[in-house]
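Lab notebook, bench 4. Still working through the backlog of constructs that have no structural model yet. Next entry is a single chain of 106 residues. Request: give me the structure tokens for it.
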Amino acid sequence: MALFSKEKIRRKAFRVELPDKYAFPGNYPGSKEYIKPPIEAVIDALVKYSEDAKEEIEFINTDMPVLFYLKVKKKGQIVSELYQAEIVKGASHPRGLGYFIACTQV
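Model written out:
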């Protein structure tokens, strides 16, 4: 049985949707040949997320995996939280269709 540290358990994660043409490419069911979206599409989706959430974003690394800070309000103060973003294949659809950006606090 693996033991997890409290820090690892407390990590926050969220999902950012890709534009439909990248999330659901037209070559299904041949998703094994799916070409991941250009990094610009990922960056644009993260910027849109930060604008919608009203949280400032600062990119550290724009190669995959993308590293960025989100400036969030906690107890009346602005705190920078470091996240890593990767493109992952969705598992909620019975055939595993769809891709999204998974962001995990590091």
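Notes after review: Residues 39-53 form the longest helix (15 residues). DSSP finds three helices and five strands in the chain. Flag for follow-up if needed.
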